[in-house]
Amino acid sequence: MSTDDTSQISDSATTTGGGPTRADRVRQVTVLIGAVVAIAGAAVGSGAAGGQAIQDAAGGALAADATVLAPDSPAFSIWSVIYAGLAVFAVYQALPAQATNDRLRSVSWWVLASMLLNAAWIGVIQGGWLWLSVVVIALLVAVLAVILVRLVRIPASGWFESLVTDGTVGLYLGWASVATLADVAATLTAEDIGTSADASIWGVVVLGAGTALAIAYAIFAAPRPTVAIAIGLAMAWGIGWISAGRFNGPLIDETVAVAAAVAAAVALVAPLVTVGMRRRG
Hints:
The protein is mainly alpha-helical and 281 residues long.
């Protein structure tokens, strides 16, 4: 490991000349406090600290066996990793040495917005407003996509920043993308749009769209391997648990299970291929 790598936590390679401005300090403090509030609110709202769990809200529309695209329950454990990454990011961006880091200037407000939208989505689901939940989670994915564009455009200052920022955002975006598919399916099912007879068909179609999205992410994010691979891991994780839920459990659908297994494999392999091709090129 080089000296630059070991010292990057305190020294940013992407900084603007001069000292930190008042706006920098306001951003750092606001994002730190906002992250604490958003993460705590999300934990309480999701039932992690007591109360109604998400899978029981909205009449059980998001339960593991509610639709053919519902991930099995263990899939949601990824949130603990994402929340931990967001907490570390909030502390990291607040360090005095990072005040003039142009990359963090570019994404920190957007990361805070994503956390607030996630907390809002949980509140909407708890209120039983499924169509509104689709709008909110779509906005969440859009915000995370903006962050992805900025992370690809501006290089990280070193491995630690890449791990904290790219790794966290990648997992967050990948999982939110899969959750969007599940949320749409839950909403359509709750509104009786589609029947059990064609559930396998639209399930495979939606999984196809998810696979195409995973490939698109892999191609676009290839210049930043950490974020590209993290997106692929999260999407493979979420879709893989859709497959597991359809192979075993109350709602068995082998057609969707096989399609999900293939989609998960593509999501996992695609970033490895695109990153490898870019390095060879």
